[in-house]
Amino acid sequence: MDRSRLLAMLHDMLLARKFEERAAEEYTKGNIAGFLHLYPGEEAVAAGVMHASEPGDYIVSTYREHVHALIRGIEPKRIMAELFGRKDGCSGGMGGSMHLFDRARRFMGGYAIVGETYPVSLGIAYAIAMRELPEAVICFFGDGAVNQGTFHESLNMAALWRLPILFVCENNHYQIGTEIHRHSAVAEVYKRACGYRIPSRRVDGMDVLAVHQAATAALEQIRAGTGPQFLEMETYRFRGHSMADPGNYRPSVEVKAHQQDDPLLVAIEETLPYYPSSEEIQAAGHDVIKQLSDHMNNEGHLDQAGFDSVAKQIDDIIEDAVQFALNSPDPTMQDAWDALYCNRGEEVLI
Amino acid sequence: MSKEIFYWQALNQALDAEMSKDDTVFILGEDVGLYGGSYRVTEGLHAKYGDWRVRDTPISEGSFTGLGVGAAMVEMRPIVEIMTINFSLLALDAITNMATKVPFMSSGQFPMPLVIRMPGGVAKQLAAQHSQRLEQTLMNIPGVRIAVPATPQDAWWQTRQAIRSNEAIIILEHELLYFSKGILDKTAPAPPMHRAMIRREGRNLTIISYSRMSLLAEQAATQLADEGIDAEVIDLRSLNPIDWDRCVASVEKTHRLLIVEEDSLFAGAGAEIAATLGERCFYSLDAPISRHAGLDLPTPYNGKLEAASIPTVTSIKQAARALTQTENAK
């Protein structure tokens, strides 16, 4: 892989981690309300998949979608403003954390009813197929979403009509607080797609290079017109389900398995729901971001000074985003009515 | 240019007319293609437009209705046929949480030119799971328009207007109307999509109704005239929005209001109509607003009980007589 791609992925993962940490901070300050589902631990999935996608592809995501949106290229300040519920947010303050939209970037929304991303993807892919375009839809969902009826309905139709969809399961092993062996009879998610004759494989979702490689290969197949592909990304979220969830249902032995070699293990075990700061993670040595920066360091792509400079730029971006959000006005009630009737044409209704 | 045709034929011709001039229009649903539609509405269209534009789907209402939402977001004009409104309960997530929320939650970034067609109503002994009306379930969702054509003429125009609109629209058809006949005049100008129609003018009371019940109300009014009761009949044609101004003008003229609906009485469309017109026409009314509706009962299979569970021409006449005999309160 070329150096610029690696640097860009590192940049995006670091931006993602720091953005989410800042969002948590702003939530505790009361600047962000409602549900806030954060992504730390899973950055390699979003980065690897997004960097394999083309600008003409469509992204359909879940309620844990800030990072998909960020890496897709929505400006951090417009995402932060949306989390703050402000008029300059990417959804005008009508959507919030779980409903980020950006039509220009083909970011087709975050959906907060589990299992909705499949049919939306199906419809977009149907239109692509009818128009015979070389585009694809990337459909995100979690392991908890594979037991919804729409999963089976939509996989069946996608395969039946050979629709250009890349199904990406972010398997973080928990549907909120229920571990996968307690919610799924078949815990190997990728095997389920085989039932619909969709080419499917399991990928190490903590390794951004593996993710990127798998997504690139899958999208290549899709563009060749062979129909949908399915990737199960094995990953882990470091935090609870949302800011309302301390996540202490997870046995420490499991956290050990996922954060092996991580000196932060002790702090996490002892101080749940305490979550370490970025400085501590960086100092600690072993998480998805450190894995990548180590790799780049070893390969001679980036030295410590280079890494520090990237980190500093990102800190500035995030600070700007927060200031932008704070300065953005609230939408008015008229804005809400306009949003409801946005598709009303010139025709006389009554 | 005008001739008598079946209601299903008017729908069929409306679909064909829009599909032939706009290739972003496509139909999907169970048995809409090769089979030609459960009520013949899509007959001949698969042969003319092919698999991609007239798509037979698996029995997966939730996902194929959601497919319509996704396609509408990228400027296709999907027409989803749900075989009966009873099955639409499986698609309520797509309608409620997706179709009406995406344009709103994105602050107007996405169009939603989605049409969902489905028949409801008590037909002929189809039993409780296949006889529901459920209008009120859909009326309570901000952001979805609901058209209820009762005649071939309205079916023709309202379907075409719905397909051209960029808003999510549900067309509620009626199983007993598909094989009813009426005049279709394609040269007559189209009334606005959601305008109410005065089917019969009268002075003594206003009967507000919609879909099949408005035809029964018209028949009842014709017969009541022989008894000296002159009823004005309004066919709403749309349940969201409702043409309140025409309703108010009529009630202010007749001073009495009877609402006839096939759906169950409790918390139904009639309750909304009574509440709003009660507020707007209170000082014009000579008698309490009267609602004549279906019983709050799952529809029995038994034919006699089924017939007794919804309004008939006879029962509408009785309700109108009772209302006109009410003492003037003033």
Explain the overall architecture.
The complex is a heterodimer of chains A (350) and B (330). Chain A has one domain (3-338): 3-Layer(aba) Sandwich (Rossmann fold), CATH 3.40.50. In chain A, strand 5 (174-175) and strand 6 (178-179) form a beta hairpin. Chain A is of the alpha/beta class and 350 residues long. In chain A, strands 2-1-3-4-8-7 form a six-stranded parallel β-sheet, with helices on both faces. A two-stranded antiparallel ribbon of chain A has the order 5-6. The relative contact order of chain A is 0.16. In chain A, 49% of the residues lie in helices and 10% in strands. In chain A, helix 1 (3-29) runs antiparallel to helix 13. With 330 residues, chain B is α/β, with parallel strands linked by helices. Chain B has helices at residues 7-21, 45-49, 61-73, 92-99, 102-105, 135-139, 152-164, 212-226, 244-254, 269-281, 303-308, 313-324; strands spanning 2-6, 25-29, 54-56, 77-81, 115-120, 145-147, 169-174, 181-185, 197-200, 205-209, 231-235, 238-240, 257-264, 290-294. In chain B, the strands form three sheets. Chain B has a seven-stranded mixed β-sheet, with helices on both faces. In chain B, helix 10 (269-281) links the parallel strand 13 and strand 14. In chain B, helix 3 (61-73) packs parallel to helix 4. The mean pLDDT of chain B is 97. Chains A and B meet through helix 5, helix 6 and helix 15 of A and helix 3, helix 4 and helix 5 of B.
